[in-house]
Amino acid sequence: MALLKGGLVLVDYNTGAVQRVIPLQYNPETLNRSLQVQGIGAESGPHVDQMRLKGPPIETYKLDAEIDAADQLDGGDPVVTASGIEPALAALETVIYPSSTQLQQSYSMAQQGTLEIIPMDAPLVLFVWSKERIVPVKVTEFSITEEMFDSHLNPIRAKVSLGLRVLTIDDIAFDSVAGSIYMTYQQRKEQLAARSPAGSLSAFGISGVLP
Q: Which residues contact 54 (CB under 8 A, 6 or more apart)?
């Protein structure tokens, strides 16, 4: 059975059409996740507010992905032989760049005296980590450590560190493609939680919680 890969998928925000698939060469050994609770009011606020949630938690991912050209070089891959892992790095890097076409259009409009106040559109980024975890994200951190180079100074081994923030319905329209993907992600969590066996109070050595 082939080992499944994780990675990023770029889709059109409005239609969901897949624009690019960027699988990670090697799956990270660890995936760090954090969830920040979205409560209402300060901790010292009315007691009723302590029992309310104003939205999904702010969920973030951090991971380190390794990219190594060794196998492709041994196999005589012409792209890797000519450019090392630069193409693989560029595929990841350009996720956070506006396209050169957009930059040129923006410059041309400025030269014509047209003020462009709408930010340049970018594809919706999905983080895919098995069929159970497909979630819209925003790239918040990105760093690259290039570790080895060929004789032409093309990088042939590198580590890419990514920070991702999950986009919830607080960030995106509920009835958008991204909103639908997020809701499916949360509903899947609820389905998985329902499959987890329920505990019993006896496990805590108690028969009830009321005094």
A: 38, 39, 40
Whether 166 contacts 46, CB under 8 Å: no
Chain centroid to Cα 56, Å, comes to 17
In DSSP terms, 136 is beta-bridged to 126
Q: How many CA atoms are closer than 13 Å to the CA of 199, on its beta-carbon side?
A: 8
pLDDT at 60: 98
State the first-to-last Cα distance of the chain, in angstroms, to the nearest integer.
54
How many residues in total does the chain contain? 211
Dihedral angle over CA of 107, 112, 113, 115, nearest 10:
-50
Residue 203 DSSP label: G
Residue 161's pLDDT band (cuts 50, 70, 90): very high
C-alpha distances in angstroms, 128 versus 68, 102, 163, 208, 210?
21, 27, 14, 42, 44
Strands 32-36 and 7-11: unpaired
What pTM did the predictor assign? 0.86
Do residues 22 and 11 lie in contact, with contact meaning Cβ atoms separated by under 8 Å? no
pLDDT tens column, 127-157: 999 988 999 999 999 999 999 999 999 999 9
